[in-house]
Specification:
Layout lengths: L3 E5 L5 E8 L3 E7 L2 E8 L2 E12 L3 E2 L3 H8 L11 E13 L2 E10 L2 E16 L5 E12 L18 E15 L1
Length: about 180
Amino acid sequence: MTKSKWALDAAHSSVDFSVRHMMIANVKGSFNSFNATIEADPTDLTTASIEFAIETASVDTRNQDRDGHLVSADFFDAANHPNMTFKATSIEKTDDGEYNVTGDLTLRGVTKQETFAVTFEGTGKDPWGNEKAGFSATGNINRSDYGLVWNAALETGGVLVGDKVKINLQIQAAKA
């Protein structure tokens, strides 16, 4: 394949995360509004151009009170930082269809370099003849690196919210 533009198919994609709660369980959530700009040969991502934007106010943890707290100044501060963004700066092939994608993640006005493990899941044509490509990505970030430091001490020791956030993306894109 040659390098071409791909449009994110949000109806068949997801941006999910999980974080430790009370040091005994994981709470999961997702973002419902996101977009990407992808220019790539999906069979060889080493030369790809990838940019991703997520609307922080679109967070959904299936708990309205928690979601309200997450968009507040204690966490995402969505009023002042409506988007978190990622722009790939280097892509290293680690195995057949496997890559380490490193780039600049900006969250709450702070930019740090992060690396995500990306898998090319394949290509195919939908029933209407549109060429689609699938990708998955996983990684971890420390929320305190981005100024998300709100927490509460537990009387049994430890804290209410863990620092490590696990990220999981499932992406389907259509050749533009």
